[in-house]
Amino acid sequence: MNVRRTAAVLAATAVLGAAAPAVAADASPSPSPSVAIPSGLYGDTDPSYDGVWRQSLALVAQDLVGEKPAAEAVDWLVGQQCEDGAFPAYRADATTQCGSGTQVDTNSTAAAVQALTALGGHDAETVHALRWLKDAQNADGGWGYTADGPSDANSTSLVVGALAAVGDDPEEQRSEDGNSPYDALAALAVPCDEDGGGAFAYQPDAKGTLTANADATAAAVLGSLGKGFVAEADETGAAAGTGACADGDDLTPQDAARNGAAYLSEELAKDGHLTSALAGAEDQPDHGNTADAVVALAAAGATESTAKPLAWLQENGPRWAAQAGPAAYAQLVFAAHATGTDPRDFGGTDLVKELNATGPDTEASAAPAAEETSGDDGSGVSVWWFVAVFLVAGVGIGLALSTRGRKRRP
User: Fold this and answer.
1) What is this structure's pTM?
2) Is 408 part of a structural domain of the chain?
3) Residue 409 and residue 133: Cα distance in Å, rounded?
4) What does the pLDDT average to over 253-258?
5) Cα(first)–Cα(last) distance of the chain, in Å?
6) Total domain count for the chain?
7) Would 307 be classed as within a structural domain?
């Protein structure tokens, strides 16, 4: 939902599900942005690939903890919307209309819908955005990164989150062929008798093979449960990831979520965190995907499986987020919320304070006019997600792009 957000990056390996590249604890600060940073935008790094994404996650997280974002921050997000209802990753000049060269995408649009719905008062914008998303649905019931690419687990789950946020039943959102988002996700579930059985693939490879991907699995567990960025812990444990792996044509969304939760539980039990799927970084911990997995497990009711990764995040997450930026802080806030942990004391760090410091002063805690809060690093996990997506698109890795072929609805 980084990706999933969400955000995250595995596109370069044709399995874009592997979420945002984990930022090493000793990584050097990001270079100065090559473009001017708008005053209402969170983060102070180049927003070209993740402006709308990081802004949306930051606003959702602030609303979740009772903070009222600055009006200029909300206005900036609203101003990014194109005339057709879609949102791009970023457009520097919002005073001109979006043209054919404006790269809009489902991920930015679905994230913006969740943010504007949470804040309230933006029904016209969300309805317009949802219509674009619904028109971009593929025949298989899913969505890809763009409106004309093949369905992937992450993008489909993000749109499910947007539908759920506005109160629409994802099951009722069907393509011209009669398929729902849940059908698309089920088609990406790795069969139980194969390696990684129960997990989800980002997309099938060129031969149609499904490869288990932790990031795609975390996103798809939430998607199968009809959840978005914000999820409550399921105390009933209805999809807790226990029992035998369910398989077959009658696989229900809850079965798929249970299978995925079991896979994540097993993966996290090893080291307490997921590892990066990026080439050359396989030994690095993936903080963003670990946070997303914690949310997914809590939502599935597998709360006992969240203890170890949550402890790991409390120890290592804040330092990562300080480098990765607002989207990363938001992911940690979502993980804290899902597990009933205080985001204002997350391993000794006040995530809310740190998130607020990456953007304009919130209305509830606005500082005197003479004082200005400097932004924090804003590239976050998402920058790499979008960079990878566009690279993959340019190279023509077809399936690997976070895009999915979609048939437009009349």
Assistant:
1) 0.83
2) no
3) 10
4) 96
5) 28
6) 1
7) yes
DSSP 316: H
C-alpha to C-alpha distance for 119 and 191, rounded to whole angstroms: 40
Cβ atoms of residues 279 and 13 within 8 Å: yes
For 108, 138, 142, 395, the CA distances from 399, given in Å and listed in that order, are 19, 14, 14, 11
- The amino acid that residue 283 corresponds to is D
Separation between Cα atoms, residue 97 and residue 341, nearest integer Å: 43
pLDDT for the residue numbered 332: 98
- Cβ neighbors of 401 (< 8 A, separation 6 or more) are 11, 16, 144, 145, 146, 149, 150, 389, 392, 393
Residue 346 inside a domain? The answer is yes
Q: Which amino acid is at 308?
A: K
Q: What is the 3-state secondary structure of 219-240?
A: HHHHHHCCCCCCCCCCCCCCCC
| Average pLDDT value for the chain | 84
CA distance 161 to 186: 16
Taking the C-alpha atoms of residue 71 and residue 160, their distance in angstroms, rounded to an integer, is: 27
Neighbouring C-alpha atoms within 13 Å toward the C-beta of 207: 3
The whole-angstrom separation of Cα 144 and Cα 159 is 10
Nearest Cα to 148, choosing from 119, 106, 92? 106
pLDDT at 345 over 60: yes
The verdict on residue 360 lying in a domain is yes
CB-based contact 320:20 (threshold 8 Å): no
Q: Which residue range(s) make up the domain with 139? A: 2-400
Q: In this model, does residue 206 exceed pLDDT 90?
A: yes
* Per-residue model confidence (pLDDT) at position 242: 56
- Work out whether the CA dihedral 386, 387, 388, 393 comes out positive or negative: positive
CB 323 within 8 A of CB 301: no
- Check which CATH number belongs to the domain holding 247 and give it: 1.50.10.20
* Chain segment 125-156, per-residue pLDDT in tens: 999 999 999 999 999 999 999 999 999 999 99
What's the rounded Cα separation, in Å, for the pair 89 and 103? 7
Q: Are 377 and 30 in contact (CB under 8 A)?
A: yes
